[in-house]
Amino acid sequence: MNSPFLVTPQWLEQHLHDADLVLVDVRMSPPGLTPKKDMQAEFERGHLPGAVYFDIDDVADKHSALPHMLPDAAAFGRAAGELGISENSTLVFYDEGNQFSAPRGWWTFRNFGAKRVYVLDEGLNGWTARGNALESGPAKRPTAVFNASFNPAAVVDMAQVEQALGSDIQILDARAAARFYGDAPEPRPGLHRGHIPGSINIPYGELLENGRVKSLEALRQTFSAKGGRY
Fold first, then answer.
1. Is the bond into 103 cis (omega within 30 degrees of 0)?
2. Structural fold of domain 6-153
């Protein structure tokens, strides 16, 4: 798919040594897996050349009972800066290739002011499938300053969701259908089964084909079939 927010493994081969490029590995342990997979160790076993590891589980609001809630801007800026990332870096996020966590990294950094952010289509698997090498060991970038500023328009709270119920605002649920319909338990402790009333289920996996984002026409067909507007 042609998109201003996606880059291909072929593109990355040509730009790997660009001075302002930072590859950001955001692979995550699968939700509900106990004990959690050590993703820092996974990163050090093999990652794209020059990449840093951003831990979505760890860089989060530590005062919330819910996982993966956004931290405040100061905490985020410190974490990004320690990885050698500034708000002016060109950032390419990747996961295994299932687009499970790379878009979350992309979204998070955009919310805090990063200006040039992309997702690697096909992820790590797409990179290695072309015969490209991985690197092992810890990240080696010098620290930087990330001037973080949170964009409140990108996030809604519970009251805003409640106000949207029954209106023409679409609420999309990207979880698997079994979780949406309450047929499967939530992998995170304490969360109820089911979905927000009136929401539309478009599982994120149905937007992909072999690790790549589907074509625009195929995405239109998927959204239309599910009752979504675009």
1. no
2. Oxidized Rhodanese; domain 1 (3.40.250)
